[in-house]
């Protein structure tokens, strides 16, 4: 029987969770796992640090040392939760999984920090999930009726109960049985009592998951991570992407790949390329940086404007601004300076703090902007908070004209697959035309990349074919996975 040794951080939050507020923020989660390496939990903390951009609310690690699981989780950044050597020394073992959380289902409380650890018939088990299940509420109601007692508000916990209730003979079969019942997006890691590290991607591969290997670890050294940037930080070699619908099982017998769902196509999240992923990551064969600079080039070809300087809105507008400047021949300048001691704007839960956040984060570089015709490049407009403030700031710094160019199509629909975008009535593009948006943000002109331009930049000449290979529902409203909880009443009608 496995043992469980918790090392809980005692901090908790009171107050409302960001996920429970009306205009919710816009982030996701990172997962990292390592098998067969000394200092597995230290490697995991480093991997989570490289994935910090994917979620900044909470972090957790569960390690496995022979038959004992060890756990430490807390609210806050990786450095805050795992900065203490005494804590790290408790996380013993040669296998570990970790998670950076930005809530999509279940608020920001200590009880909602991942990985989730639970005991079931075969022993202990830990699960870490990036994504969001679209039938979690429906399944949860059924499970509660069957007597399940939920410990958290997270969709992810449904997985744990489905595994525990399964009567399948092996843990692998139980995982598959659970996966067949859930709908939605998941890149999931599980640490199992027989010493197995499992990694699974949903049948359409909406969220990323990559496989890597550390040198000098004999038969071990296997790494699973949301992005390749987490392999780079620990010196692991990138082996390949885990495929859509693939389940990998890593244990003493080596690595085994299963495809329990058959081939169902691939609908990778196109927003990973536009905004979420780190620019130094390579996902699904495309370097994120190259994708972004190419989008910038397409944007310049599609909606060029006479101007003196191209200015990125830091951080994620930078690579597309480099592409725009190169294609248009207009000089690239850092007209907005980013303060490095503040995180992503959306992390703050109230509109008031969000507004303050943008001011704290960006300031205008007058020397570059005064008297100039400026093209501002950002990756996306969600609520419009950032663009409104930035346009104002650039004008106040003396710019003669301010033109805004956006490296994504207008964001008109919420995401239900693991990105915490606001509901439609908070999305600027859902309620206004491009002309109205230009007026609202105070720009002289505003243009977004077209779908053709976006997919051309990703290497696909045929837009319709490309649209079948990516999820782009937040731009098109074409949701590739059924929204059971949202549309349940319609299905029953
Ligand atoms: O229209 P809004 O509601 O303001 O949201 C859009 C902005 O939010 C994101 O930036 P963020 O500051 O979160 O992170 P970044 O530093 O990675 O660009 C995105 O890059 C846009 O700049
Ligand atoms: N953003 C995510 O991937 C979140 C994972 C999971 N749905 C949670 O709420 O914790
Ligand atoms: S809806 Fe948008 S953010 Fe969500 S998975 Fe699809 S493309 Fe990505
Ligand atoms: Mg930004």
UniProtKB/TrEMBL annotation:
Binding of Mg(2+): at which residues?
316, 378-379
Q: What is its EC number?
A: 2.4.2.14
Coiled coil regions in record? none
Q: Where is the active site?
A: 29
Question: What's the record's note on cofactor binding?
Answer: Binds 1 Mg(2+) ion per subunit. Binds 1 [4Fe-4S] cluster per subunit.
Q: Which reaction does it catalyse?
A: 5-phospho-beta-D-ribosylamine + L-glutamate + diphosphate = 5-phospho-alpha-D-ribose 1-diphosphate + L-glutamine + H2O
Q: Which UniProt keywords apply?
A: 4Fe-4S, Glutamine amidotransferase, Glycosyltransferase, Iron, Iron-sulfur, Magnesium, Metal-binding, Purine biosynthesis, Transferase
Biased-composition ranges for Basic residues?
Answer: 1-10
The top EC class, named as a word, is transferase
GO MF annotations, alphabetized: 4 iron, 4 sulfur cluster binding; amidophosphoribosyltransferase activity; magnesium ion binding
| Pathway participation | Purine metabolism; IMP biosynthesis via de novo pathway; N(1)-(5-phospho-D-ribosyl)glycinamide from 5-phospho-alpha-D-ribose 1-diphosphate: step 1/2
* Keyword field contains Iron: yes
Record-annotated Glutamine amidotransferase type-2 domain positions:
29-253
Biological processes annotated in GO: 'de novo' IMP biosynthetic process; purine nucleobase biosynthetic process
The record's listing under InterPro entries reads: GATase_2_dom, Ntn_hydrolases_N, PRTase-like, PRTase_dom, PurF, PurF_N
Hey, which family's this protein in? In the C-terminal section; belongs to the purine/pyrimidine phosphoribosyltransferase family.
- Database matches in PANTHER family: AMIDOPHOSPHORIBOSYLTRANSFERASE
Biological role stated in the UniProt entry: Catalyzes the formation of phosphoribosylamine from phosphoribosylpyrophosphate (PRPP) and glutamine.
Question: What is this protein's name?
Answer: Amidophosphoribosyltransferase
């Amino acid at each position: 029987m496995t043992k469980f040794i918790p090392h809980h951080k005692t901090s908790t939050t009171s107050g409302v969770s960001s996920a429970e507020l009306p205009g919710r923020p816009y982030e996701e989660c990172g997962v990292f796992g390592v098998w067969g390496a000394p200092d597995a939990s230290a490697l995991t903390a480093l991997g989570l640090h490289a994935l910090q951009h994917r979620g900044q609310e909470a972090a957790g690690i569960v390690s496995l040392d022979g038959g004992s699981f060890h756990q430490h989780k807390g609210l806050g950044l990786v450095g805050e939760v795992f900065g203490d050597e005494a804590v790290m020394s408790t996380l013993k073992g040669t296998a570990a999984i970790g998670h950076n959380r930005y809530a999509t289902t279940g608020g920001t409380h200590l009880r909602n920090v991942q990985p989730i650890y639970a005991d079931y018939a075969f022993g202990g088990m830990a699960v870490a999930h990036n994504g969001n299940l679209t039938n979690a509420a429906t399944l949860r109601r059924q499970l509660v009726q069957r007597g399940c007692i939920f410990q958290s508000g997270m969709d992810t916990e449904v997985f744990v109960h489905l595994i525990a209730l399964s009567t399948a003979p092996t843990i692998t079969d139980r995982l598959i049985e659970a996966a067949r019942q859930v709908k939605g997006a998941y890149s999931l890691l599980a640490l199992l009592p027989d010493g197995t590290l499992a990694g699974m991607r949903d049948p359409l591969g909406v969220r990323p998951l990559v496989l890597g290997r550390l040198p000098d670890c004999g038969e071990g050294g296997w790494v699973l991570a949301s992005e390749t940037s987490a392999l780079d930080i620990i010196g692991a070699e990138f082996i390949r992407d885990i495929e859509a619908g693939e389940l990998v099982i890593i244990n003493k017998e080596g690595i085994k790949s299963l495809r329990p769902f058959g081939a169902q196509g691939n609908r990778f999240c196109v927003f990973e390329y536009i905004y979420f992923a780190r620019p130094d990551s390579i996902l699904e064969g495309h370097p994120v940086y190259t994708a972004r600079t190419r989008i910038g080039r397409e944007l310049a070809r599609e909606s060029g404007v006479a101007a003196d300087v191209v200015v990125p809105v830091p951080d994620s507008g930078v690579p597309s601004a480099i592409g725009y400047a190169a294609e248009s021949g207009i000089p690239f300048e850092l007209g907005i300076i980013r303060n490095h001691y503040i995180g992503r704007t959306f992390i703050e839960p109230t509109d008031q703090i969000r507004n303050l956040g943008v001011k704290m984060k960006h300031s205008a570089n007058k020397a570059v902007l005064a008297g100039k015709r400026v093209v501002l490049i950002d990756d996306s407009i969600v609520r419009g908070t950032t663009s409104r403030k930035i346009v104002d700031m650039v004008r106040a710094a003396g710019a003669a004209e301010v033109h805004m160019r956006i490296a994504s199509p207008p964001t008109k629909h919420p995401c239900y697959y693991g990105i915490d975008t606001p509901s439609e009535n908070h999305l600027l593009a859902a309620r206004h035309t491009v002309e109205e948006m230009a007026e609202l943000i105070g720009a002289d002109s505003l243009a977004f990349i077209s779908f053709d331009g976006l997919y051309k930049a990703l290497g696909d000449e045929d837009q319709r074919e490309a649209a079948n290979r990516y999820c782009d529902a937040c731009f098109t409203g074409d949701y590739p996975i059924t929204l059971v909880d949202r549309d349940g009443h319609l299905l029953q009608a």
